[in-house]
Amino acid sequence: MTRSAQATGVSEQAPQAAGAPAAFAMTDGHVHLDGRPVLRGVNLRIEAGEVVAVLGVNGSGKSTLIRALLGLTPLSAGSAELFGVPPGRFREWWRVGYVPQRLSVGGGVPATVREVVASGRVARQRRLRPAGRQDRAAVDRALDAVGLTGRAGDPVGRLSGGQQQRVLIARALAGEPDTFVMDEPTAGVDAESQAHLADTLATLVRQGKTVLLVAHELGPMAPLITRSIVLRDGRVAHDGPAAPGDTGCHPHPGREQERPHAYDVAGGPIGSGTAQ
Ligand SMILES: Nc1ncnc2c1ncn2[C@@H]1O[C@H](COP(=O)(O)OP(=O)(O)OP(=O)(O)O)[C@@H](O)[C@H]1O
């Protein structure tokens, strides 16, 4: 295990003031895609400072849930809020670092690693102002955090899948947000990149950042997770603390692969009706 994955220590950030709005909230959220219900009556509230894993079988609606929380996929019914504001009216986008499942600048775009990471500063920069010293320093720190300083000048297309995932994480870090949303950051990622991610995540946890991540396999990130939400067929099947060693009837975030996919609250396997 990497050094900081073991250090799940106390947050360096002051606790959230009482009465502060949740980082994410959804009330009776429904999403239909192609006329099919994908999210069905989801209720959840994620406070600032929580480190939450969203688990579930393929097609259970994990990506759709986080996209809906960010306003990237519209709700067909119900409501969502980001820091107390509906996503459509939310303006403080610098507060949220989103790490999508895949790098989308790849195909033929000759952007360098540094350029992609620097794009994470956009929400922080004032319009039409060139990047300043602070921006460059933030990009340098982000590259260093994911171990890609030496690759900064390389086209991203030349990096491995795991390294490209680290570029996306660095892009989110560069914006210095207080909240991270990561969609399967370890999917198809090599062991070295997984260890880097666990290190980075441990640092974020120590800093008191809010983290919401979708994962199939938590691996070295498992000890950092404070809460797990399991989706089943577009509904929340489990929502509770992810205590290490708690293998009772609750899903254990780090052991999905041992028991094919997540388990439901009754301890039985989640139906595979929606698996792809
Ligand atoms: N743009 C879309 N149009 C139509 N259906 C979609 C769209 N995106 C996702 N779906 C469907 O919605 C369901 C939930 O997809 P989603 O990607 O949210 O699941 P997931 O739990 O994140 O799956 P995975 O683990 O495979 O990423 C799936 O059945 C999927 O096929």
TrEMBL record:
Q: Which UniProt keywords apply?
A: ATP-binding, Nucleotide-binding, Transport
Is Ribosomal protein given among the entry's keywords?
no
One Pfam annotation, family name?
ABC_tran
Q: Name one GO molecular function term.
A: ATP binding
Query: What PROSITE patterns does this protein's entry cite?
Result: ABC_TRANSPORTER_1 (PS00211), ABC_TRANSPORTER_2 (PS50893)
Region listing for Disordered, in residue ranges: 236-276
Where is this chain compositionally biased, Basic and acidic residues type? 253-262
Q: Keyword check for Transport, yes or no.
A: yes
Q: Which SUPFAM superfamilies match?
A: P-loop containing nucleoside triphosphate hydrolases
Which intervals hold domain ABC transporter?
24-258
What this protein is called in its record is Metal ABC transporter ATP-binding protein
Q: Species name for this entry?
A: Sphaerisporangium dianthi
